[in-house]
Amino acid sequence: MYEKIFDGIREQAHVRDELRMGLVCDACDLGPCTFDGSTSRVPCGITPDEMAMKNLAEKIAEGLGEYKTHKRHITMVYDMESLLEAATRMVDVSRSYSDEIDKLLSPYRTVRTVPFGLGGLRPEAVNICAVSSPRGIHDLIEFTRTPEAAENIECAGAHGVNIVSLGYPGAELAYQRGIPCIGNYLVLDNALATGCIDAIHTFGSERASLEEALKHFASRKGPQCELPEPKMHTTGATLDVTAINRAYERGNIEGVVVLFGAASPTCSWHMEGLVTDLVEHGYLVLVTGAHMYEGSTDAMNAPGVVHIGFCEIGKMHGKGFAPTPFVLVPGWKNAKILTSTLALVHHGYPVITGVRIPLTPSIEEKLAEKGCITELNGERVVERISELQSHREG
């Protein structure tokens, strides 16, 4: 009766100790990763203890979350359609969050050019890297502009305070308030190596972060390496779906492509070349995330690249696009991006991922039938979009 169970146990015996300790992580598209005795590091830098604790925390969150669903446990659902439908529970939350941030920050939004990349650091200023929520970064900006803060900054001999951010909050604050976005979280070490980051603001006191920054500014000797020239990109345009739809109806654009998030290191697409190719083929490319591309514009009625802030599904779903945009996911990176991707698939968006989701071939085929395909060759992405468009129009 238990022969298959015992056979499976024997086959798994060579990694059983590592698995029992929780040393397997599939939290992002850099993995799955493990420590098997012969490896001492993983790409993200997590330690064995941290990996075990992360998995334990995920189990607890999963267990607590099941009590909020009032239905069959999602971890026991093996039907693709049901799982995709479950993923859509995040849509209303994302839309609410996007609307909340937009209500808070849109009064400051205007079309402007903003530095993206490490060129956004200013050696002569106090540089504070804000790793917080958009609301938290907004509060920091407001505090540093009070008379009290301005006086302290002037006394320190700094040429103002330069708040920069990274990741999805950085993309949103660049879009809404025009502060520099230095990239995603993978560039933080490079930013710190410049010696120009005077403090990192998380969710603590704005006053304490500024005091720490001023102390560091007073002791530093200037950049420890040459900073790149600022790369300026246009952002801050209000999404005008009416203008986009009119441009499509008149044949001014071939369609809309949403670039959902920045590329992962495991993605083989050459992003700059891909975006250029899309624009040359007549597509309007809406970019979300902490990376921008040459030729950024605020025009919603012609082929081009328009940056619209952070990678939240609430930014683009349910806005009345005609036709439905194509969605490119260059790296699902984390659970939120992956769940967002699956929610978009359920709502009928054609999706192309640049990093394969860890699935068996048969399950991957089922997902493809729902409209989500993987294309590892970046040079074929535009061709695949054309195929999907022909299928849709046919």
List the helices and strands and how they pair.
Layout: H1 3-11, H2 16-20, E1 24-25, E2 33-34, H3 48-66, H4 80-87, H5 89-105, E3 112-116, E4 126-130, H6 134-144, H7 147-155, E5 161-165, H8 167-177, H9 188-193, E6 197-201, H10 206-219, E7 231-235, H11 241-249, E8 255-260, H12 271-280, E9 283-288, E10 304-307, E11 326-329, H13 335-346, E12 351-353, H14 361-369, E13 372-374, H15 381-393
Parallel strand pairs: 4-5, 4-6, 8-9, 8-11, 9-10, 11-12, 12-13
Antiparallel strand pairs: 1-2, 3-7
Could you explain how this protein is built, in words?
The mean pLDDT is 88. α4 packs across α13 (335-346). α12 (271-280) links the parallel β8 (255-260) and β9 (283-288). The protein has three domains: 22-75; 112-231, 3-Layer(aba) Sandwich (Rossmann fold); 236-393, Rossmann fold (3-Layer(aba) Sandwich), CATH 3.40.50. Helices cover 41% and strands 14% of the residues. The protein is built from 15 helices and 13 strands. The longest helix is centred in the first third of the chain and has 19 residues, at 48-66.
Task: Give the tags.
globular; 3 domains; six-stranded parallel beta sheet; 394 residues; single chain; Rossmann fold; 41% helix; alpha/beta
Task: Give a quick summary of the entry.
The chain has 3 domains: 54 residues; 120 residues, Rossmann fold (3-Layer(aba) Sandwich), CATH 3.40.50.2030; 158 residues, Rossmann fold. With 394 residues, it is α/β, with parallel strands linked by helices.
Alpha carbon gap, first and last residue: 53 Å
Please identify the structural class as seen in this structure: alpha/beta
Tally of separate domains: 3
What's the Cα radius of gyration? 23 Å
